[in-house]
C-alpha cells in the first residue's frame, strides 16, 4: 500500500453534480456508520474487483461489522462437488465474517468464461434482476455490511435489455470504482464515472489498483484521475505478485465512505 494524500479535485464536470443526490442506505448504529451495502465495479474485467471487494470486507470486519460478500452473476465457474465452483465467490466467502447460503451469495453461476448474457442464453437461463435484489435484501438481514462485486466493467449486458448498471441502479447502492492502473485506464475510468452519474448513483469512492508493476508515468496518471474524480480516493494499492486482501484492507480509508 502506498501513502495517499487528500484528493484535490479541480472544477467538477456538470455530470458529477448529482453524485450525492441519491439516498444512501445508512445504518442507525454509529459503530456501523456509512452505507449498508456497496457495489464494486471496475474499469474492466481483471482489474482487481475481487481483491478490493475482499479487502473492503476485511476492513469492515476489522471496524467491528459483520460482513458478507455477494457475486450476483459469475461466469467461468468450474464443475465440482455440489455444483459449480467460482473463484470469485469462494474468495468473497472466505473474506466474509458471515457464512451465508450459496444461493444468496451467488444466485447465478455459469461455466463458460464468456459474457454473462451469452452464458445465460446458452444455459437457457434468464438473469432476473429482481431475484438478485431479493437475494441482496436477504443478505442485508444477515450482516451489517454487504459488498456486492459486479461483473466485468460497469455496463456488461445481463440479457437482451439490461446490464450491470441497471442492476446497480435496482440495488440502489453507493458504488466503489476500482481503476486498474494501466495504459488506457483514464478514459475507461472517466466513462465509468460518467455512467454512474448519469444513473443518479453515488460514487462513494474509488481505488487505484496497480495491476501492472511497471506502468509508465504512474504518478501522472494517478494525478490525472485525482483531479477529475470528485469522489474520495480510498486507496492506492501497490502491485504485489501475490496480493493479500487483508494487507490491502489496512490501507483502505473506509471513513471516507461515510462522508456525505
Ligand atoms: N495490486 C495487484 N497486484 C498484483 N496483482 C493483482 C493486483 N490486483 C489484482 N491482481 C491480480 O489480477 C487478477 C485479477 O484480479 P481480480 O481481483 O480477480 O479482478 P476482477 O475481479 O476485476 O476480475 C488476479 O490474478 C489478481 O491476483
Ligand atoms: Mg472478480
From TrEMBL:
Q: In which pathway does it act?
A: Cofactor biosynthesis; biotin biosynthesis; biotin from 7,8-diaminononanoate: step 1/2
Q: Which GO terms describe its molecular function?
A: ATP binding; dethiobiotin synthase activity; magnesium ion binding; protein homodimerization activity
**E.C. designation(s):** 6.3.3.3
GO cellular component terms given for this protein: cytosol
Q: Has keyword Cytoplasm?
A: yes
Q: Which CDD domains match?
A: DTBS (cd03109)
What is its cofactor?
Mg(2+)
Q: Which UniProt keywords apply?
A: ATP-binding, Biotin biosynthesis, Cytoplasm, Ligase, Magnesium, Metal-binding, Nucleotide-binding
Described by its record, this protein's role is as follows: Catalyzes a mechanistically unusual reaction, the ATP-dependent insertion of CO2 between the N7 and N8 nitrogen atoms of 7,8-diaminopelargonic acid (DAPA, also called 7,8-diammoniononanoate) to form a ureido ring.
* Protein name in UniProt: ATP-dependent dethiobiotin synthetase BioD
Q: Which organism is this protein's natural source?
A: Sulfurimicrobium lacus
Supply the source organism's classification: Bacteria, Pseudomonadati, Pseudomonadota, Betaproteobacteria, Nitrosomonadales
Amino acid at each position: 500500500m502506498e501513502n495517499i494524500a487528500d484528493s484535490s479535485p479541480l472544477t467538477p464536470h456538470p455530470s458529477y453534480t448529482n453524485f450525492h443526490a441519491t439516498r444512501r442506505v445508512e445504518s442507525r448504529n454509529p459503530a456501523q456508520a456509512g452505507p449498508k451495502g456497496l457495489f464494486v465495479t471496475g474499469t474492466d474485467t481483471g482489474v482487481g474487483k475481487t481483491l478490493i471487494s475482499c479487502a473492503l470486507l476485511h476492513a469492515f470486519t476489522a471496524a467491528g461489522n459483520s460482513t458478507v460478500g455477494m457475486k450476483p452473476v459469475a461466469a467461468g465457474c468450474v464443475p465440482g462437488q455440489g455444483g459449480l465452483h467460482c473463484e470469485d465467490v469462494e474468495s468473497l466467502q472466505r473474506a466474509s465474517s458471515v457464512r451465508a447460503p450459496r444461493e444468496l451469495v451467488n444466485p447465478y453461476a455459469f461455466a463458460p468464461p464468456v459474457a454473462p448474457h451469452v452464458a445465460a442464453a446458452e444455459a437457457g437461463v434468464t438473469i432476473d434482476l429482481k431475484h438478485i435484489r431479493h437475494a441482496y435484501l436477504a443478505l442485508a438481514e444477515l450482516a451489517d455490511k454487504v459488498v456486492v462485486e459486479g461483473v466485468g466493467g460497469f455496463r456488461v449486458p445481463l440479457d437482451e435489455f439490461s446490464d450491470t448498471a441497471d442492476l446497480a441502479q435496482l440495488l440502489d447502492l453507493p458504488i466503489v470504482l476500482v481503476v486498474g492502473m494501466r495504459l488506457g485506464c483514464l478514459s475507461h475510468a472517466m466513462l465509468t464515472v460518467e455512467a454512474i452519474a448519469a444513473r443518479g448513483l453515488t460514487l462513494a469512492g474509488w481505488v487505484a489498483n496497480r495491476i501492472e508493476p511497471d506502468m509508465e508515468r504512474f504518478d501522472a496518471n494517478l494525478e490525472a484521475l485525482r483531479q477529475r474524480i470528485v469522489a474520495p480516493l480510498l486507496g492506492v494499492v501497490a502491485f504485489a505478485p501475490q496480493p493479500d486482501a487483508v494487507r490491502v484492507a489496512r490501507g483502505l480509508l473506509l471513513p471516507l465512505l461515510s462522508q456525505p
